[in-house]
Amino acid sequence: MSENKLFDTDLFAAETSHKYALALVNIKGLGVKTFSYLIPDDIKDKIKIGQAILVPFGRQGLINAFCVGFSNYLPEEIRAKKINKILDEKPLFSIEYLKLLEWVANYYCCDLVTVLNAAIPMKLIEKAAKTEQAIEFVTFDGATKRQTAVLELLQKMGKTPLVAFEKLAKTTRNTIKKLDELGCVNITTEEIYRNPLDILNIETTEPLYELEGEQKTAYEGIKKKITEYEIIRQNPDNDSVLPPLSILLHGVTASGKTEVYFKLIDDCIKSGKNVLFLAPEIALASQLTKRLAKKFGTRDVAIWHSSISEGERYDVWQRLYEDDIKILAGARSAVFAPLKNIGLIIIDEEHESAYKQTNPAPRYDAKVVAQKLAEFHNCPLILGSATPDISVYYRALNSGNLFEMKHRYRNAPIAPVTVINMQEHSRAAYKSVISKPLQTAIQETLAQKQQVILLINRRGFSTFTQCKACGHVIECPNCAIPMIWHAKDQLLKCHYCNHIEYFPEFCPQCGSDALRNSGTGTQKIEQYVKDLFPENNVERIDSDVLVRKGEHIRLLERFQKGDIDILVGTQMIAKGLDNPNVTLVGVISADASFNLPDFRSSERGFQLLTQVAGRAGRGEFTGRVFFQTFNPEFYALESAKSQNYRAFYEKEIITREEFDYPPYSRIVRLIVSSLNNFRAEKAAAEIALSLCTIIEKYGISDRLEVLGPSPCVIERINSYYRFQIIIKNKLDLKGHQFISSFLSKVIMPKDVKLAVDVDPLDIL
Ligand code: ADP
Ligand code: ZN
Ligand code: ZN
Question: Nearest bound ligand to CA 288?
Answer without folding.
Answer: 1
